[in-house]
Amino acid sequence: MRTYRIAVIPGDGIGNEVLPEGQKVLEASAGGRFRLDWQQFDWSCERFAKTGAMMPKDGLDQIRDFDAIYLGAVGFPGVPDHVSLWGLLIPIRRNFHQYINLRPVKLLKGVDSPLKSPGDIDFYVVRENNEGEYSNIGGRLYEGSEAELCMQQSIFSRRGCDRVMKYAFELAKTRKKHVTSATKSNGISHTMPYWDERFAAMTKQYPDVKADVYHIDILTAHFVRNPHWFDVVVGSNLFGDILSDLGPAVVGSIGIAPGANINPEKEYPSMFEPVHGSAPDIAGKGIANPIGQIWSGAMMLRHLGEEEAAQTIERAIETVLADGKSLTRDLGGKANTKELGDALASIVRETT
Ligand code: NAI
Ligand code: MG
User: Fold this and answer.
1) CB of 132 closer than 6 A to ligand 1?
2) Residue pair 257/276 in contact by the 8 Å Cβ criterion
């Protein structure tokens, strides 16, 4: 039987509560056709408080040979967010060349969109995940004086632009054949015109895919006013980050939104995690919505080649949302984390 070795990093706060529900539902979806071999790592802000590091020095080596990484959430009050992010998530994303951050944005029946008439929303945000505005090249000069100044460089490489754009076009080919690029080449006069240039070059290789370009400011407005326009939206690290939070926000609860950090060549493990963070305000209460974690698990199974199991889980999510009886408070229900996880696991078991 095929066995997948999965590195499990629950992380902080509600990560510890939703991750076991994800494991439970994924186990149910295996149905004797494949095996999941989980190994847990306690890398977190709690570990930082005890040892001064989010993960051990050889942390990346410890998980390099796994088939995938299943992550909860990272970050907690007491440890500055840039410390926890750069101490764990970013090293994994960069060293394992997970240059695609993929987030589906789909309005499901049973979930209220904050929009008055949302229409049919079903698109993907493809965010560049390795370079762009999130570089640590920069620094301060004349610290503490009147002349104090600070600089940070953006990095846009040809390889970096081309590979994320290619991924977006390939994805669009399997869908509605439409790619939208986020830019800001009016204000940012070097990197963004370069991004546009690489996008124009890529469109030529995909004559059957419709391509359009919007500046990020008006694009955020269209996400709210015309979300039904989109199929695949590609953006730099910063713009993609913003769009991939705004997208899930217009289709309802942050608690259900999934995400993936993908190394498409499969040279390294890819990492699957919900969009939400550790939610310190509700952590420890057992009321967090586990759907984002579970849906991220479905994306992981798809990446591993278990398409059928992935679809079974996604259908179960649609069923449980439409039925409305086992939902958590963020979706207006009364169930707790475990009850919603159990409901999903039993639907998956029945339909596998
Ligand atoms: P957050 O996503 O943790 O929480 C935002 C709001 O949404 C809170 O009111 C929270 O209760 C609610 N919420 C989030 N997930 C939910 C769920 N599954 N069910 C029900 N309600 C849910 O974002 P916030 O507060 O900005 O960040 C908290 C910590 O998490 C910070 O340390 C931040 O750095 C970290 N974070 C980590 C991320 C990651 O691991 N990729 C992503 C976002 C934030
Ligand atoms: Mg974000």
Assistant:
1) no
2) yes
Task: Kindly state the tokens that stand for 150.
Answer: 């600070």
CB 277 within 8 A of CB 85: no
CA 335 to chain centre: 25
User: Which ligand 1 atom sits nearest the alpha carbon of residue 282?
Assistant: 11
- Report pTM: 0.94
Q: How far apart are CA 285 and CA 45, in angstroms?
A: 19
Ligand nearest 282 Cα, by number? 1
Give the closest residue (by CA) to ligand 1 atom 6. 279
Structure tokens at 249: 């926000």
Using CA atoms, how far residue 83 sits from 52, 62, 128, 352, in Å, is 11, 21, 21, 42
Q: Where are the domains of the chain?
A: 1-98+257-352, 113-137+153-251
Q: For the CA atoms of the chain, what is the radius of gyration?
A: 20
Ligand 1 atom 37, closest CA: 277
- pLDDT tens readout for residues 208-243: 999 999 999 999 999 999 999 999 999 999 999 999
What's the CATH superfamily of 1-98+257-352? Isopropylmalate Dehydrogenase (3.40.718.10)
Express each pLDDT in 262-303 by its tens digit. 999 999 999 999 999 999 999 999 999 999 999 999 999 999
> Within the chain, where are the H helices?
15-30, 45-51, 59-63, 81-84, 90-95, 158-173, 191-205, 216-225, 237-250, 291-304, 307-323, 337-351
**In this structure, which CATH number among 3.40.30.10, 1.20.120.140, 3.40.50.1000, 3.40.718.10 belongs to the domain 113-137+153-251?**
3.40.718.10
